[in-house]
Write a structure and sequence with these properties.
The protein has about 80 residues and is mainly alpha-helical. It is about 60% helix and about 0% strand. This is DUF805 domain-containing protein.
Amino acid sequence: MMEHNMFGNTMWAGHWLWMLVIAIIVVIPACRICQRTGYPGWMGVLILFPVINLILLYFLAFADWPADKNKEQDV
């Protein structure tokens, strides 16, 4: 019934390109958020990993930010 074609059992190249674009769209803001809160920017890459991304979001939401501590010391 089903004919064999090149899309049958493999992922096509456009899929990988789409995944790269989405990763860039998600990682860049995550890195900027981490930097603005006072944490290293590389932590934004953790947003790509399932379950770890949820842990990162909760950590950023409820942790004391080093950037806030620096502002308090400047005043």
